[in-house]
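[agent] plan:
  1. take the single chain provided in the ticket
  2. run structure prediction with default settings
  3. attach structure tokens to the ticket
  4. add a short note for the reviewer (M.T.)
[agent] executing step 1
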Amino acid sequence: MSTDQLKLMALDEEDLAIISAHVQDAVFLSRDVTFSRVAGQFQLLCNRFVWEKKRGFFKKPERRRAALVFKRVNAVRSIGLDRKADDEVSNLLSVQFEKSGDGPEGSVIITLSGGGEIVADVECIEVLLTDLSESWEARGKPHHPR
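[agent] step 2 finished; step 3 output follows
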């Protein structure tokens, strides 16, 4: 693994905001989303846009294969994500946390373009982001109209 590949961990909302920034505009297929109730783990494999790399005039945008792993997960549900359509591509916009009461438990909400969401009910925030591959040239830079 090269030294510029990311390996981040989030244990609170501030950390989660940093991970969210790094996975903004990541794309993934429905078949790359898994949940193990026994292990209490939800995993999303994606091709993330490499926002952190500086780009010059001749430097092309890049993507990397990455794993976004949520631990201590009790349940997962989704809206607008067809789990049976293995080749359906989704675009991740953000990852946020909503507390449930006074304790550390709550829901991690993954917002998708087109109005979809994946919601993971968690005991607490414990999220890992790990790059799994070297970069490759992206087709273009994601565009967000104002």
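[agent] step 4 note for reviewer: The chain has a mean pLDDT of 90.
[agent] ticket updated
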